[in-house]
Every structure is written in C-alpha cells, then in structure tokens.
C-alpha cells in the first residue's frame, strides 16, 4: 500500500518538478530486458533534487538526494544515498528498466508554483501552467512562456 501511494506522488519525467535542482530523468522504459519495443516505451520517474550523480564503469550509478523527504517519496526509504544497477545497457529502478536517462538542472523559474490561495484577489501566475508537460523539440527545451 505504501508503495502505491509513493508511486502516485513521484514526478514523471517530462513534467516540471516542484523544487529547483539537479534531476535524473528516466525514460524509454520497459518491464523486461528482452521486451520487444514497438515504440519508445514508458516515461519513468524524475529522481531529485540531487546532490550528485556518479556512474562507475557503466555498471552502477550512485546518487544522493538533497533531502530525506525526497528520497522517501521516491524510494520508500529514509536514506538519501541510492545505488542503481545496470542490466546490460539498461538502468534499473523500482523493478523497471530504462534505456535512456538524462541528468538536468531545473531553475526556480521552471518549477511548479502553488496556486495563490491566501489572497482574495489572486494575482497572475504565468508559472501555474506547469501542469502541462514540458515541450521538447529535437534541439531541446522550448520556452512556451509569454515573453
């Protein structure tokens, strides 16, 4: 039961996180290493914010969350250190396998801003559009905010 609640709150790669920092995004997911892929697979979680991300001989990945609460949300454990294993050329996390992953930074301006609920007359909040997936093209992030 705990795992289901944790999974529901875990941010999915492609959605804007609530906090700024460094993140590991997992995608091109599959359930088994020999699974025949008819597409890109599923998007995995976004792990972070992170203190660091380190790969050793393309066989294991070590990372550290910046806070215990973020680690607990994503792993169910109160340990900020996490070691991920490789299965061939796939990264393993939470019983799933991922063919692609990326480490990226999220600035405070790109983060989720909660609704302005304490005011009687709310002020404009351009960043509330964050619930939409981040738009990407072949060259990277597209800033869809008004200039």
Describe the structure.
A six-stranded antiparallel beta barrel has the order 1-2-3-4-5-6. Strands 7-8 form a two-stranded antiparallel sheet. A hairpin with a 3-residue loop joins strand 2 and strand 3. The chain has one domain. Helices cover 11% and strands 36% of the residues. It is mainly beta and 147 residues long. It contains two helices and eight strands. The N terminus is likely disordered. The radius of gyration is 17 Å and the shape is globular.
Radius of gyration: 17 Å
Strand content: 35-45%
Structural category: mainly beta
Rounded to the nearest angstrom, the distance between the terminal CA atoms is 44 Å
The run of helices and strands is HEEEHEEEEE
Residue ranges: pLDDT <50 for 5 or more in a row? 1-8, 128-132
Number of domains: 1
Secondary structure: number of strands? 8
The count of helical stretches stands at: 2
Biggest sheet details: 6 strands, antiparallel, barrel
Mean pLDDT, to the nearest integer, reads: 80
Percent of residues in helices comes to 10-25%
Shape: globular
> Could you give the order of strands across the largest sheet?
1-2-3-4-5-6
